[in-house]
Every structure is written in C-alpha cells, then in structure tokens.
C-alpha cells in the first residue's frame, strides 16, 4: 500500500518535472545537458507507467511475456545514463564531452543483455519476483545482475560527478545537490544489496531475505530523497516567484494614491493599453509600469517642485507635491528645466520603488 502511494506520488512528480523541463526548453532553448535531463525525467516517468500491473499485463499480452520487465529496467537504465550525461557533460571540456558520450556503450550492452537474458528465462518465471527458487535459474539471475549492476554503476557515476559540483555550489543549489546525492547513494546501495542477494542465492544456495528488505527500504528512502532533490530547484523557483508576485501585487496597490495624483495632473504619462485597477498582466510587469508612469509624471512636475522637496520629510513632500499638481492643473503645463526627483535607493526594481512607496503611504 505504502509503496503504491509512493509510486503514484513519484509518477506525479516526474510528470510535473517533465512538463516543467519542456517549458524551460521552449523558453530558453536546450543544449546537451537540458535535453539529457529531459530524457532522464521522461524515461523515469515512463518507467513508473510500465511498472503499473495493468500496463505490464497489457504489454506482456501484446508483445511477449516479460517485455514489461525488460522495458522497465531498460527505461531505468536510460534514465540513469541520461543523468550521467547531465552531471558529467561539460560545454567547455572536450575530454568530459567524449567521456559522457562513451556512456552510450555500457547502456547499449546492458539493454541488449537484458533482452537476451529475458529470452533465456522460462515463460513461467519471467514475471516472478526475486526469491530463492527463481534465482536458481541462470537466465533469471543474470537478468537481475545486469539490471542491478548497471543501475549501481550509473548511480555511483552520478554521485562521483555531483561531488565535483558540490564544491562550487552554494545556497539552494547546494541543498538540492546534497539531497540528490543522498538519494542516489541509497538507491545504489539498494541495487548492490540486490546483487549480493542474487549471488549468494545462486552460488551458495543461501537466501538472505534481510538483504531484500534492506534493499527495499534503501530504495524507497533513496527514491524519496531523489525526488525531493530533483524537484527542489523547481519548487524553490516557483515559491520565490509566487512570493515575489504577491509582494509586488501588494506594492502595486500601495502606489495607487501617488499614481492617481500624478496621472490626474499629467494624464499623458499613462502608457497605452492600461488596465486600470484590474491586474490583467503579471504583478511584476504592472508594478514596473506603475513606477515608470509615476516617475515620468514627477519629472513633468519637477519644475514646479522647489529645491526643498528633495530634502524634505515625506509628509512635507506630500504637501509640496499637491501644491505642484494644483499649479500644473491651473496652468496646463510647467515651465523650466526638468530634473529627476525621488532618486532610487538602488539598482533593483524594488529599490527603485522604495522612495515612491514612502511618499505614497503618507498621501
């Protein structure tokens, strides 16, 4: 029951990650690493589909008995091989590029080995699980040795490469890599425990059930850690974007009194296609637009603002601005040299808005 729930959650996470990766490639384009990561996520997502009992039964009936197991481990192998390329490939290092390309060789050998050994397994054993009796069949035992062996090899290769990135990473990326590397180590350990179980049963007739239990626990915990690690950057980016949007939506509305006063005096500064009070675009775009309109209006009003305005407290600035607006409305224009007023506190959009927000709050 628990394993089924975990598998369902894993499928949803991988499917969501797949959609996110495709969207990233659509927006930013994709190089070798981007395509490899998308391939890895796609292969692992399909592996969860194939692992479903109904899907496995359909495939076995449609093609041949045992094909679902070959596809499952073949997709897992493809996913792991793609992860090796993601973590090993370097756009500037030709040696590492060739090394990443060489990973196709063990992948092909493993997939061919899975297909050949499956054909050697009797039909009545092809869909059975690992046990003391099934591992006595050479074909069955070698199928799982090849599958678990390649997965352990590939996962440990990923761990080796991620360790190099850990030295350069910081912040949320380092957290993501630490969680990811922990999951990969546990998954590799689970595969190694499965190899030991098969060898001990095949060579010495000793069935150590505890090894399979340890393998299952390690694989389950490792899968959860892997899912968290691979999803962490996506969740982090989405969370930051969500909170940034909420903050800018709030600040957009806080600027309303200042914007209304300035645009009432100088309506020409309102950019075409303005949506009024309704947020019809992203909060960031509307927030930036409102800042531009306010600053443009203040520049037009600046000849009517005395030098005292620049150094005055915000409460006094509010009175001086209202007086300048009244003069502008009466004259219909302003005469004199324009100047920048209320300089930004820094270079970012939020720092640009700070002096405007302080003035808007006292209006």
Topology:
Layout: H1 2-28, H2 32-50, H3 53-62, H4 67-88, H5 94-102, H6 104-120, H7 138-166, H8 171-204, H9 209-254, H10 256-265, H11 283-301, H12 308-311, H13 314-331, H14 349-362
Describe the structure.
With 363 residues, this protein is mainly alpha-helical. The protein has 14 helices and no strands. The chain has helices spanning 2-28, 32-50, 53-62, 67-88, 94-102, 104-120, 138-166, 171-204, 209-254, 256-265, 283-301, 308-311, 314-331, 349-362. It is rod-shaped and about 100 Å long. It starts with a helix and ends with a helix. Keywords: Membrane, Transmembrane, Transmembrane helix.
What helical percentage do the residues reach? Answer: over 70%
Oligomeric state of this protein: single chain
Strand-residue fraction? under 5%
Q: What is the CATH architecture descriptor of the largest domain? A: Up-down Bundle
Q: Poorly predicted ranges (pLDDT <50, ≥5 residues)?
A: none
Shape summary = rod-shaped
- According to CATH, the fold-level topology of the largest domain is Rhopdopsin 7-helix transmembrane proteins
Number of helices: 14
Briefly, what CATH class of the largest domain? Answer: Mainly Alpha
Total count of strands:
0
Broad structural category: mainly alpha
Task: Kindly report how far apart the N and C termini lie.
Answer: 61 Å
Major sheet: none
Radius of gyration (CA) equals 31 Å
Structurally, the number of domains stands at 2
